[in-house]
Amino acid sequence: MRTELDLDKLGQTVQQLYGFKQGEVMSAIVHLGNRLGLFDALAANDGATSDSLAGTTGLHERWVREWLHAIAAADLAEHENGRFNLTPEAKATLTEPDHPAAVGGVFGPPITHREIDRTAEAFATGIGMTWDEHGADTCHFQAAMGAAGQKTWLVPVILDSIAGMSDRLAAGATVVDIGCGAGVAASAIAAAYPASTVIGMDPSGHAIEAAQARATEAGLTNLSYRQGVFDDLEDLDGVDLLLTLDVIHDLPRPGDAVRAARSCLADDGVWFVADIKTRGGLEDNRKIPVLPLMYGMSILYCMSSAMSEPGGAGLGTLGLTEGVFGELTAAAGFGSVDAREFDVDPLNRYFEVRV
Ligand SMILES: C[S@@+](CC[C@H](N)C(=O)[O-])C[C@H]1O[C@@H](n2cnc3c(N)ncnc32)[C@H](O)[C@@H]1O
Fold this sequence. Notes:
CATH topology of the largest domain: Rossmann fold
Strand order of the largest sheet: 5-4-3-6-7-9-8
Shape: globular
Radius of gyration: 22 Å
CATH architecture of the largest domain: 3-Layer(aba) Sandwich
Distance between the termini: 48 Å
CATH class of the largest domain: Alpha Beta
Largest sheet: 7 strands, mixed
Order of helices and strands: HHHHEEHHHHHEHEHEEHEHHEE
Bound molecules: S-adenosylmethionine
Number of domains: 2
CATH superfamily of the largest domain: Vaccinia Virus protein VP39
Helix content: 40-55%
Number of helices: 14
């Protein structure tokens, strides 16, 4: 390990750190663009000027001009002689919510001082925040991170890979999505399989409210939600498909959760689990793109949630390896665990678990 100061590397490190600051600031600028309708208005008006955009949006020209300069500086828009065009890629990702590459929803309001204070406290007390404690905005941004994929390929690619499952769902099956968050996946399944009954469960009131609103808007009558945790699965039985998408690493008591999952399944039922494709150790995970984002998200959200009860397991975003999940499922008496990877979802590993 190096101990001497390297002046070239010093410059690179300063640049890297300012890159982090730029990310924080530009996240807020993108959020403002979403919130004020500036991206949508610009997408609808190629060659807009700050005057014309201020007119369309009813906003103050000086502020709109500075915002345009910021997004053009960030290469989200092209600029010529005071006229601005959103790039086609920024248009697709920021103004088309159903585009498979949509990311606009990820830019909710920035992390609040309250969350930072609460997290600083957690470093001292050991007790983290539940997802619900972060509030409704975090619930929406979390859902937006997986939404494009869950809408596009969860049903036709991922669920279709489970032998016989598509036919079973088409004929009418009982599906439970535990830790359903804002209900993007549950809605996609309920819409694709109207003969099936889909139940979404999550402890977060914010999540259930958002999920219910989504189901109502889509007019889905075969989908219902209830506030609940893994332990509540023990009140259910005969579940054909239990889904758990990016939840196990967030749980303070994953062992109890896996046992509860087993108790609700039909004899020929499937528990289908997605979790981050981790190898466990820091150096083993170097190949994961956006690794600092993953560890950062873990501190702020995932590990925090997994430490939100005294004695929490604290697996965190990168904590559920194949080995750890194998031990948990074996201890709960599951018969088989088949790990899968899909090209459409390079970030997650999937497990098909059977009694
Ligand atoms: C990372 S989010 C994933 C949400 C959703 N499955 C998705 O893919 O967007 C984790 C979710 O797990 C929920 N959760 C936390 N503890 C739980 C528990 N004990 N039982 C069930 N869900 C839990 C949180 O409220 C949160 O909505």
